[in-house]
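Our consortium's second objective concerns turning raw sequence data into structural hypotheses that experimental partners can test. To show how far this objective has progressed, the report includes one record in full. It was chosen at random from the queue rather than selected for favorable results. The single chain below, 259 residues long, was entered without modification.
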Amino acid sequence: ALSTILLNQDAADYAVRHCVDTAIVSVMVARALEKSRGETLSIAAAALTMNLGMLNQQSQLQGRQEALSSADKDQIRAHPQTGERLLRDAGVTDDDWLACVLMHHENEDGSGYPFGKSGDDIPLAAKIMSLADRYCARVSSRNYRKSVLPDEALSDILIGDNASIDPMLTACFIREFGIYPTGVFVRLANGEVAVVTGKGASKSAPRVKSLLSASNEKMVVPLERDTASPAYAIKEMLTGEQTAIRVEPGHLWGGEAAG
């Protein structure tokens, strides 16, 4: 599931796909923090519905080149409250779900919206979702900009958003996803292009399967490589645009991923 954030960016409209991506990351962080099944389900539901209050506008903005109008900005800042109201009108009564939707744009330092809450006044679940939201937005391509690599996204968050994010969550995020998250393309020391398929022996040596040979020819069968070995050590990360490879999940993760 984590790999789809990087590998399936053309699978659906950004406004919809981004909520699914955020839910995947939020669930992984919640599990790492040993949240209960009920809390984790509430976070997942909130992530899937976090932008309900601006879903139509979000889709329309993807193709626009001009700057946002004052009305656009007002609608964006109001979308957490609009979304919460729509969910209540639809019969949602889960307080944790509703609180996450309402406060997923609040910041640790009080600079967020809609209420300017800070620190412990923001539910941890909303903070988890906020971090996932920021990360997924940065690594996803959109009509008006290309995606950035995961390490660039994390660096941007750590430096640019440092004051607005709970440092405990940032540390947990880095520990859980590692240097090379599942789904990222990498170039190996022998020149092959591979995709990270999961955690390995260390953060710098994840499990990978090579898809392109050193001569840039597609491999009939993906080959698993040991990145702890100097011959197959990771030299750099690559974006999907750089590789132009169409990945079949079933070839990398087996039958359960083939659907």
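The partners drew two points from this record. The chain has eleven helices and five strands. The chain has a mean pLDDT of 90. Both points have been shared with the crystallography group to help prioritize constructs.
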